[in-house]
# Entry
Amino acid sequence: MPRPTSFRLPEDLLDRLEAESRSARTSITQLVSALLDEGLKTRRFPGIVYRAGPAGRRAGLVGGPDVWEVVRDLAHAPGRGMDRVENLAAETGLPAASLLLAADFYTAFPEEVDALIEANERAAEEVRRQAGRREQLLSP
# Structure
């Protein structure tokens, strides 16, 4: 449950927060909460960044794929333990250390990552259903 908090912030920072909240069409409280959450996570896991996209903001590897993509691929990679990591590293060209960073982020924040994996699976299923309906329509 949220609890009230008070901070004294410099005027220029408040101006930027207000401008960003208007641009993002969100409250200052929601924006500050999201920025603090992301900032603390990326501080804990250097090499992880947050970026915007059609599904909203999500964690990703600096210069690489989203964390959810790495976790999904690790779950389906052949092998066990570090063999699994090495196999995926060889397949993707990503360093094993980056794959382990994504795995570590996942262990700390599984709900965040699992929600994105599930959303991707739902979207892929919908695309398959639409393709099936189109094929049915176009078939003799």
User: Anything to note?
Assistant: Residues 89 and 95 are 6 Å apart (CA to CA). The chain is about 65% helix and 5% strand. Helices lie at 11-24, 28-44, 67-76, 82-92, 96-108, 110-138.
